[in-house]
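Input chain follows. Return structure tokens only.
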Amino acid sequence: MAKKGSVLVVDDEEIMRDVLETLLSGAGYRVDLARTGEEGIEAYTRRPYDVVLLDVSMPGMGGLSALGEILKHDAEAVVVMITAYATFDTAVSAWERGAFGCIRKPFSNEQVLSTIAAGISRRRKDEERLVLRRAMRSSVNREGIIGRSENMQSIFALVDQVAPARSTVLITGESGTGKELIARAIHEGSPRNQKPFVTVNSSNIPSELLESELFGHTRGAFTGAVAAKKGLFDVADGGSIFLDEIGELPFETQARLLRVIQEREFTPLGDTTPHKVDVRIIAATNRDLREAVRQNQFREDLYYRLAVISIELPPLRERRQDILALAQHFIRKYNAENNRHISEQINAETLALLEAYPFPGNVRELENVIERAVVIAPGDEIQAAHLPADIINPNARRTMSDAANTGMDITRGINFYDEVRRFEIDIIRQALAYTNNHQSRAARLIGMNATTLNSKIKSYNIS
């Protein structure tokens, strides 16, 4: 292997192939030859080259078509076109299609060698950037972020993509969906991960103190300011600041935050000298900020500066296939915290109840449910009886309400678990009838794991 790099020459003229091979080999490059566009594509798919010298005019597949196929295989390929008909239109067409450059026949040796050297330099820089991006992605800390579902995998891919950038990120979703975990993963996957990650919950700080917390103040700036205080933006300099519940930010504070984003500076309360900061802002909210903008409760200009990149986290009821993995993660966590040895294997009945429950509190509520079960389970396995009453009998409130309205004495006329079983059997039969006994479709229809549905069909002997 030549130290300088590898070059693939694709040209139908034998004398041209010989001339280029002699020139490039003598300059220290490893050279392979191809006679047609098809041969060139086949050679490149076997192994990538640092540079491809590709003739425009060849019998069969022309050079521009071959260029397109090579770039489909490797979008970072460095391809230099060679032509005896190097009109302006030919060069423009090649560049538009992704060629690195264009050389006209007859060419000088110096022209070829300088173009090859520039192409290899570009290729090396692209490879370094790719290695850096992969290293950054591998460093993203997703501890506690569990998601095998398709929508969560898409979010993980987006986190990997945006983490190395500086752009502001707005994370939306219901409470308990893990917005802070995603924000921290973005910070950990960025070049700022050795600098602070500062969290601010806008709803927990009184509005009269919020600007002092964010931007700091000088001594005597207001009553009670007996000493100067550094603001959280100063603390986060070089790193990231996570503004949780951004929708609760007072209107006047929104204006100051907008200036920080636009000018990358702020002035502490009572001071006259602006402070320059380099901080990446990651914000989160469970409010509909677009609606807040329409109602004049949130600045439109600030919304668009925050939502350069938007990540919407789905509620747990829309990713039920993640419930098992999340529950097992929390079992491991609370086994360690409580010195318990509860099995991570969850039986079908318990899992079915968890997957059927809508979890209005999302992942945070599931975590609380599993923590409680780990603590109170007398044996080494979580049973259905160790779950909260709302999960064990999701229809209990409606049943009791119906009983009250009809005057039924529930203490004598209803068996709690028999009612649940009858309700489940009825729902499953309706789903199967609607889907013409297609179990996978029926499971999707009622939001149940297909394996769990099959287990229930066998357990209830549903034909």
